[in-house]
Design goal:
The protein has 267 residues and is of the alpha/beta class. It has nine helices and nine strands. Bound molecules: adenosine-5'-diphosphate and magnesium ion.
Length: 267
């Protein structure tokens, strides 16, 4: 299999991502009908009602080359927010993030593709956004299209795709670009069982001394099998980071779920 990675120097243990004292606050306008009391309060603030969410709170985390880092936590823990910050999509409100390499992200559905364009055009769009040249994308197009199993649908507008088709194409692009740092945010759990297994195998192939992988997932058994490091976020804070079994055991104990295999395989 060909590689687009420019350098063949082993980078094991070199820093890929450094996250220092990172905080993130979302401030959004409230659209529900306000109460009279809230309206009076809002008047004093210039008429705007806002909701402030502290999504990340003083997070410190290093990711080294050669690492496969799993990121876990309940819904709303801040996992996707942290990934968006690392991917450079969202600047943190506090702290610093340094990224030492090219990043390809496969974030939660809905990011990155233009739904009015065909799958084919979006492959080019995604590839260019990831820093590939037009020639490189051309050279990899068949591989991407084959992996996605979309067939003729590759030339249909993406708004006609099911979420599974959408995710399959997104995964195919992100995994073919072979970046230094690959972030996969809950995209391994989409699609049918067969595609899930195929994606997981591709992720395992992508494990390398010269690459850092970050996998956000609720599939605990997959993370136990795939990662060499796990970070647990809760309410925007990094609770624990370390050996996968240890951190996942602590997380599951916290959830009072024990080690139910049914829950392990869920999602
Ligand atoms: N674009 C946004 N605007 C406002 N609040 C947001 C936005 N995205 C996420 N949040 C809030 O930030 C918190 C963390 O969300 P998120 O990072 O998506 O968590 P996770 O991926 O762990 O489920 C949640 O309380 C969520 O409601
Ligand atoms: Mg998320």
């Amino acid at each position: 299999m060909s590689s687009l990675s420019a350098s063949n120097i082993h980078k094991t243990n070199e820093l890929a991502v450094s996250i220092r004292n990172v905080g993130l606050t979302y401030t959004t306008a409230i659209d529900r009908r306000p109460t009279l009391k809230a309206r009076v309060k809002a008047l004093g603030r210039g008429g705007k009602q806002t909701r402030v969410v502290r999504a990340l709170d003083d997070v410190n985390l290093d990711v080294e080359y050669g690492q496969v880092l799993g990121v876990i936590g309940t819904n709303g823990a801040g996992k996707s927010s942290l990934m968006r910050c690392v991917a450079g999509i969202l600047p943190p409100t506090q702290g610093r993030i340094e990224v030492y390499g090219s990043v390809s992200t496969l974030l939660a559905l809905g990011v990155g593709f233009n739904p009015s364009m065909s799958g084919r055009d979006n492959v080019y769009l995604g590839g260019l956004a990831a820093g590939m040249s037009r020639e490189e994308i051309e050279g990899h197009f068949e591989e991407i299209a084959d992996f996605s199993e979309l067939g003729d649908a590759i030339d249909a507008p993406m708004r006609t795709y099911s979420s599974g088709m959408y995710a399959r194409l997104a995964f195919s692009v992100a995994a073919t670009v072979r970046p230094d740092i690959l972030i996969i945010d809950e995209a391994l759990s989409t699609g049918d069982a067969k595609f899930k297994e195929k994606s997981l195998n591709r992720v395992k192939e992508l494990r390398s001394d010269d690459r850092a992988l970050i996998l956000v997932s609720h599939a605990m058994q997959t993370l136990r099998d795939t990662c060499n490091d796990v970070a647990w976020l809760h309410k925007g804070k990094l609770i624990q980071r370390g050996e996968p079994n240890q951190v996942i055991d602590a997380y599951q104990e916290f959830l009072h779920l024990g080690k139910s295999a049914a829950i392990d395989e869920d999602v």
